[in-house]
Amino acid sequence: MRRVVLAGRGDLAEWRDAARAFAAAGILPEEIDWREKSAEADLAFQRDAMPPAPVTRKPMTVPPAFIELAEAVLCHSDPARFSLLYRLLWRLQLDRQLLEAASDEDVVRARLMAKNVRRDAHKMTAFVRFKEVGAVAAGRRKFIAWFEPDHHIVRRTAPFFQRRFTDMDWLIATPKGSAAWDGARLTLSDAPCEKPNLTDATDDLWRTYYASIFNPARLKLKAMQAEMPKKYWKNLPEADLIPGLIASAESQVRAMAAREATQSLPFHDRLQEAARNLPIEPEAPAGTLEALSAEAGACTRCPLHAKATQTVFGEGPRDAEVMFVGEQPGDQEDIAGRPFVGPAGKLLDQVIADVGIDRSALYVTNAVKHFKYEPRGKRRIHQKPNMGEVKHCRWWLDLELALVKPKLIVAMGATALAALTDVKERLQDVRGKAMAIEGGRTLFVTVHPSYLLRIPDERLKAEEMVRFRNDMLEIQRLMASAG
């Protein structure tokens, strides 16, 4: 029996070199004892195991699918993975279609290992939470993250983070090694790391986000734990909320059922009711935001007024240097009569507060002033306004711009971008860029926070949360330089 010891950190070349030597020498699978390096396994053991000069035999070949399978299987933590792959290598010389045998025990086991590795890598991309630890040279920021994988996936997954977060320096530490990026080089290490004790302001942002998207009426514990297994909870700041949200879910569902439908009376009925029941207030001076808001309250320029509860006009200082423009009011804004007070508004408030922007200094409005929706039972489902509705409401947005005279305008979402410019480019092509527009103003484009609330994929959600926060940091920088 020959014994061979490998480091076993998902390195295909390491296993392949040993397997080629044994195969060339004609050593059968049952004659090799594959071991993974550990405190008990001496690498000197490996030197004794190397085969003698190879016998004359035809070189072994494998289909490309085996290489792809082996790359994943070698990342698995099962010590039997080396012998399993070597056994498949031998068997493939007699049956080239072996990997297509769905009932073969070795094939099933190898594919299950590969599936577990891919799932572990996906969870790493979804549940890594970077913590900011300071700035480095050239204005780059530095982050550290901690993750506890089941398998040796750090090397396999690190290029994903390099591509997605190339504009910041970061270190991902795990018990199975680490990956670090400094803007020029990706450094990988197999040395185990200790968990850092770090927190930052984005922890509260994740909690706000998770609380905003949690729907007690759709709570399914098994499905939730399949997507976000409990073993990851201890390293996710938003997981602090999960026990309380689960415990209160039943009472929240009962409260939701007891509340009346949010669907409002037609606009003209509400307008007449308000006229009968509210005291007559002094007319606001012409040329003020108050007068403009009162005038917009009776707007019938497009059909959206007929179903909305009320016009939701902008709010903020008359002399605000920065104006945030969203798409349209949502359900809660339509009822409250104020912009950005629903889940998207709360998320926006959390992010801008996190980066040091004072909302009370901003003028916040929407491209469209009435809520467009589709009734669905007791719920009102948001519908995207069409370009005709956007153009009708451009009247009010232009008047707001003329009165407030902001130096910086932030367009949140494609509808806001279309309302403010004649730009025909895609939102993603101009996102994060400061553009000069007419009137000597600067336009900065980002996504609407409601987009973040709708992302179902955990990995994409994590990426977009970081990008949105970076957009707000850039806006804060533009505000500081303008001041």
Question: Any overview of this molecule?
Answer:
With 483 residues, the chain is an alpha/beta fold. Helices cover 43% and strands 14% of the residues. It contains 18 helices and 14 strands. It has helices at 12-24, 44-49, 64-73, 81-94, 105-127, 154-164, 202-213, 221-227, 242-258, 267-277, 289-296, 331-336, 343-354, 387-404, 414-420, 427-430, 449-453, 458-482, and strands spanning 2-6, 32-36, 131-135, 141-146, 169-174, 177-181, 186-189, 322-326, 362-366, 373-376, 379-382, 408-412, 434-437, 441-446. The strands form four sheets. The protein has a five-stranded mixed sheet with strand order 3-4-5-6-7, with helices on one face. A hairpin with a 5-residue loop joins strand 3 (131-135) and strand 4 (141-146). The longest helix has 25 residues, at 458-482.
The low-confidence runs, each spanning 5 or more residues with pLDDT under 50, are 39-48
> How far is the first residue's CA from the last residue's CA?
77 Å
Number of helices: 18
The overall pLDDT average reads 87
Largest sheet: 5 strands, mixed
* Overall outline: elongated
Gyration radius, in Å = 30 Å
- Structural class by SSE content: alpha/beta
- DSSP summary, beta strand count: 14
Task: Indicate the proportion of strand residues.
Answer: 5-15%
State the helicity in percent bands. 40-55%
Q: Give the strand order of the largest sheet, numbering strands 1, 2, ... along the chain.
A: 3-4-5-6-7
